[in-house]
């Protein structure tokens, strides 16, 4: 029993170290969200901070409402990609660790 508890504590400590490393890696990653077939692109960090906005010159001067909608769609696409990236990264870190069903990590 004591040995099993020691193993569990070692696993938990390793998982904590792996989570910290994964968070640091995610913070430095960048994704590009896009809309309009790439006419509007948003580069976003793993911290969900917009880093760069690209708007194709063919859209400048067109319908302002459409352009605003496309920028919003590109931002949402980037946010969703960051969320998916984080989920995949965290799943690989916690693989093999017996976590309760539905347990959510605090980030």
From TrEMBL:
Keywords of this entry: Coiled coil, Cytoplasm, DNA-binding
Alphabetized InterPro entries for the sequence: YbaB-like_sf, YbaB/EbfC
Single GO MF annotation: DNA binding
GO cellular component terms, semicolon-separated: bacterial nucleoid; cytosol
Primary site of residence: cytoplasm
Parts forming coiled coils: 5-32
Pfam family, one: YbaB_DNA_bd
Superkingdom of origin organism: Bacteria
Protein's cellular compartments: Cytoplasm, Nucleoid
SUPFAM superfamilies in the record: YbaB-like
Assembly description: Homodimer.
Protein task: Binds to DNA and alters its conformation. May be involved in regulation of gene expression, nucleoid organization and DNA protection.
Homology family: Belongs to the YbaB/EbfC family.
Official protein name in the record: Nucleoid-associated protein CRENPOLYSF1_50143
Upper lineage: Bacteria, Pseudomonadati, Pseudomonadota, Gammaproteobacteria, Methylococcales
Gene for this chain: ybaB
């Amino acid at each position: 029993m004591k040995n099993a508890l020691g193993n569990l504590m070692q696993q938990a400590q390793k998982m904590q170290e792996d989570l910290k490393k994964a968070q640091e890696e995610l913070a430095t990653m960048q994704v590009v969200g896009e809309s309009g077939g790439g006419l509007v692109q948003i580069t976003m960090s793993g911290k969900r901070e917009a880093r760069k906005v690209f708007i194709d010159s063919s859209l400048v001067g067109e319908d302002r409402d459409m352009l605003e909608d496309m920028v919003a769609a590109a931002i949402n696409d980037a946010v969703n990609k960051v969320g998916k990236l984080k989920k995949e990264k965290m799943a690989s870190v916690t693989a093999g660790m017996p976590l309760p069903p539905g347990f959510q990590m605090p980030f």
